[in-house]
Design goal:
Elements lengths: L1 H15 L15 E4 L13 H11 L3 H7 L2 H4 L6 H8 E7 L7 E14 L8 E4 L6 E4 L11 E7 L2 E4 L3 H7 L5 E5 L2 H10 L1 E6 L4 E9 L7 H7 L10 H10 L4 H5 L6 E6 L16 E3 L10 E8 L2 E11 L9 E8 L1 H9 L1 E11 L5
Parallel strand pairs: 3-9, 3-15, 12-14
Antiparallel strand pairs: 1-2, 2-16, 3-8, 3-16, 4-8, 5-6, 6-7, 9-10, 10-11, 12-15, 13-14, 13-16
Length: 364
């Protein structure tokens, strides 16, 4: 009898008392959290708190951030000690899956660089399209509030809304849209779509900033998976660099591979560099893309991951989204522009721990 009681006690100690993640905020209905503390954030003491404060104030320029952080946005303007401000007014909560899994995935992205011309020519003949004039976007939230985060995209044929053209169909039939410019590489144009923002150097020496405007409504499919499926690459070999190298070595199969991703992105000119879904210019190593089904745009987060052999523990801001960014413990780390950023982003695939920093005592 005593032995049975002892066994029950041990089981309870190791399993029955295990903390389970909870939905702690009404405004985050899908997000499971563990209550945490700043002492539990890896290497928090070595953070550049002044830089964090400046990024927080910049983040607070948007309505979405003000909705989360309220009067703290105004208070931050007169703060003298950034670290004390964070410790006094915020509480960290570790993000997990519903099952309690706290390990996720961190990838990287960058501002793409392209060469282009305003005029079509033999060298520059790959169009970068604006949003098509016949693309219809249907918002169902007024009828079905539960669908407020979803949009239907298509075109009208007769009296029906039908799917918009895929990537392959658009190439064959053309796109009913304005052209921003013509670039010299269909591969670079494709990766511009993946990154969402680009810095275009024109043949006349001028620079254009372009960013995501819309897409054709088809789901994003990773071409790296397709290359694995056809035996071109092994799963552990897949990276931006390896995909580009394979495409350049196999020019006759480029369209086949690119068309696997039926999603097609349209762009617009911007007056600033890489800009996220929040409308702010992205800051290298301070901006991340997230799945807004779990993490609200404008949120302040703490990230811990090994970024290409270097440990990164830092406060970041959810300022962007992406078609491939799905799940609660998932983020895409913005690494800037230029070749170094591209090389780093292309190799990044790391285990991720993620915390959200919420106002103390605020029930949202």
């Amino acid at each position: 009898m005593k032995r049975s009681i002892y066994i029950i006690f041990i089981i309870t100690l190791f399993f029955g008392c295990t903390k389970k993640p909870q939905v702690l905020f009404d405004s985050l209905p899908n997000t499971y959290l563990y209550e945490s503390s700043f002492e539990n954030l890896p290497n928090f003491e070595n953070e550049d708190f002044d830089a964090v404060l400046e990024n927080f104030k910049n983040n607070c320029r948007t309505k979405k951030s003000k909705k989360i952080y309220g009067s703290l946005c105004e208070e931050a303007k007169s703060v003298k000690n950034a670290k004390e401000f964070l410790l006094a007014h915020f509480s960290p909560y570790m993000i997990s899956t519903k099952e309690g899994e706290t390990a996720g995935l961190l990838t990287g992205y960058y501002e793409a660089s392209l060469h282009a011309s305003m005029k079509k020519s033999k060298q520059y003949h790959y169009p970068i399209y604006e949003t098509p004039q016949d693309l219809i976007i249907v918002d169902l939230s007024s009828i079905y509030p539960d669908l407020k985060k979803y949009r239907l995209r298509g075109r009208v044929r007769g009296n029906k809304l039908v799917p918009y053209d895929t990537r392959a169909q658009s190439k064959k039939k053309g796109v009913n849209a304005g052209v921003i410019c013509y670039c010299d590489s269909k591969i670079d144009r494709f990766f511009l779509e993946i990154q969402g923002s680009g810095r275009v150097t024109l043949d006349n020496g001028k620079t254009l900033f372009i960013g995501y405007a819309n897409q054709n409504g088809h789901k994003y499919k990773a071409i790296g998976r397709y290359l694995v499926k056809i035996g071109a690459l092994k799963p552990e070999e897949v990276s931006l660099q390896s995909i580009k190298a394979w495409l350049k070595k196999n020019p006759k199969r480029v369209d086949e591979v690119l068309n696997y991703n039926q999603s097609l992105v349209y762009f617009k000119e911007r007056n600033q560099g890489a800009t996220g879904a929040l409308g702010l210019e992205l800051t290298p190593k301070r901006s991340v893309a997230v799945d807004r089904s779990f993490i609200p745009l404008g949120s302040m987060l703490y990230l811990s991951a090994k970024v290409n052999e270097r440990k990164e523990n830092r406060i970041v801001f959810a300022q962007d989204t992406g078609g491939a960014i799905k799940g609660a413990v998932r983020a895409d780390f913005f690494l800037g522009s230029g070749d170094a950023a591209m090389q780093s982003a292309g190799r990044l695939k790391a285990n991720l721990k993620l915390w959200i920093l919420m106002p103390k005592g605020k029930s949202l």
